[in-house]
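P.,

For your records, the input lines for the assembly:
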Amino acid sequence: MSELRDLYQEVIRDHSRNPRNFGKLDSATHRAEGYNPLCGDELALELCVDEGREISQACFTGRGCAISTASASLLTEALCGKSVDEAEVLFETFHGAVTAPPDAPTDSESLGKLACLLGVREFPMRVKCASLAWHTLQAAVHGETDPITTE
Amino acid sequence: MSRKAEIPAQAGLDPAELRRDFPILERQVHDRPLVYLDSAASSQKPRPVLDAVQRYYTHHHSNVHRGVHELSVEATDLYERSRERVAAFIGAESARECVFVRGTTEGLNLVAQAWARPRLEPGDEVLVTEMEHHSNIVPWQQVCRQTGAELRVAPMDDAGDLLADEFEALIGPRTRVLAITQVSNALGTVNPVAELAQRARAAGAVVVVDGAQAVPHRPVDVRTLGADFYAFSGHKMYAPTGIGVLWGRLELLESMDPWEGGGSMIRSVTFEETLFAPPPARFEAGTPHIAGCVGLGAAVEYLEGLGMDAVRAHEEALLEYCVKELQAIPGLNLIGRPAQRAGAVSFTADGVHPHDLGTFLDREGVAVRVGHHCAQPVMKHYDIPATARASFGVHNGPDDVDALCRSIRGALEFFA
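Structure tokens returned:
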């Protein structure tokens, strides 16, 4: 039960029940779709990137498990106000952290609130749930038009 | 090994005793006793099957149909005896009608490529149902693309039963193939295959049945079913992975060209011409999965020992109990309520995604499958991304259902 509590921390349960930035943007400049064929989870991520390459808004729609929904919600929160370059750095940090061994040290300073998702390290089958939104972010930033998948 | 002396088929099965036949059920998962409710994905293996495979490799292994030496003779004998046992088990007229394949998927692909592809023409129709596993959709889509034939889909209602009138309307003079599952892996629906097959054959279609979820759970007689081809997998019926059977009417198999070339499937080879062996060897190019066949033979013997009528009665009673108990859980939704059910029950829980439910149950030692079950059209029908599915084998009993329901209640509370 304690590992389940580590996986489904209160922040995650809150964000999965009440996802932030859930909806569509009228003036999106970047958009991508993500799909996890293993479980059928799907999400669409939209960004408004201004001329200074700063992400002014980030929204998502779709349906998924508690982990993937919370991860998308937390991602959109974290992106607002960041430059595209900073977002890419954050992707690398986050991706490295969730795919690290369970006992690896964590850079909780760079991750901030996102560190609550690191419980997936104990659940290898769920890492893709946590990373779906993030791979979708990469696709959106790099202008990939085909839906990306976790496979 | 025969259990008939110990458990008369009429007396019903004792899951507590059968549980002891499955060594894996002695292990713990996350410090809990394993409650295995995922036999529809793959069944566990009873000791007689494990022993048969071990014995084969320890004492009898060699290549089949090749040598004059003693081991090759013994291996060939075991291999062909398994074929005969399988043939008798499913009511085939002759063992020559049973082709060993890797599994149901390969069997269905073999029919699509070796029977349908050279015969279908533009405008011909292949009829599948809305509840098929991807392995009984994709091979037909491919062959339709290759030949210009058209794929038609017989719809189902929300209970998960095929709509009889719509089915009737879709059968016509252009219907060349009916590809249908006997039991739905995602919903547990038992289709009235005998009736539908009769209708399709009367219209001139060839009937291809996916028997993967039927053979482990009920007596199957391919002749009374009225099938032309029938495919099933060993690993869902207590045998090893990588072995399965395609049964076909002999005259159909004899009319087909091989789909793979190689050793074992020839009568004679020169660079000018190759004469093919008759079925089933014609479709078994290369060294087969001999140990898997031996294990499959042992699995059939195990099931025969239990008696398939007893297996069916035991599992139907258990499913009925499971459905009743699941319905009593507030916030739980059964997906599909078919008139006749075998093997499995699918469900969702309010506010808990199936993946989260699956993770929670796993930590309680309860193994269920979550996802789309390789039946995405079924998920689309219900407009859901996934379900959780509990599926049963002979070793499951009411205590397993109780453990499942207890864990589901725990999950609903946890995620509330």
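Two observations worth noting. The mean pLDDT of chain A is 91. Chain A is about 40% helix and 20% strand.

Regards
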